[in-house]
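lol ok so funny story. i was supposed to be doing the assay writeup but got distracted and ended up predicting the structure for this chain instead. priorities right. anyway since i did it might as well share w the group, maybe its usefull for someone
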Amino acid sequence: MSKEKLEVGAASAPRFEFRTFGRAFEQQSFRMARLSMPVPEKVWERRSEEIYIVSAANDINNTKIRNGKMDIKTFVQEKQGLEQWNPLMKGEFPIGKEVLTGEVFPAFQVEMPSLNKQTYTLDEFLDMIKANPQLQAVKVEKQRFGYMVNDTICEIANVWINGAKLVTLNSESTVIDDILKTIDDVGLKGNENINYLQAIKRVIGMIDAPLAN
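and the output, tada:
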């Protein structure tokens, strides 16, 4: 069976991912850029502003809001140090009461707030987040540069978490061996696999753990 051909920025079967966060990865970034095959111009550089909702009670559901739309991914499994995440739900604001009670707050694994309306705007939703001491809304700004190394989708990104600047590198694919080779070729071997949820929690102090450097 031939393996799936991945395209940067395109949907595919659920992928495995290695990602790490730190203050700087100059040498690894240089190698990733030099080893990359040409990629579509649309992924040379992408910028976005997002809001992540993090929960002290949950490490398996990753919730972010961008352009008025909510996206929740859930952790599926870990293999050979790599993580696999699948979509759990997608929603758009204003968002219905039944979605909040049936999908969103259960994903946070916290007590359900009292809901007396049928729909809620983004601002109303964020007010509910602020009212819960176990939840926090975190502003995340991204400047992402796309690459393709060893048939894996890669990126180097500058990320600002509530204004604190970090650098992240990643490699993702449906083929684990291709990711492991990329980690080795780029020089990331030995760095901890840190996903966005973990990185944000470490920056805001919800988790007492360092980043990769």
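The chain has a mean pLDDT of 94. The chain is about 25% helix and 40% strand.
back to the writeup now i swear
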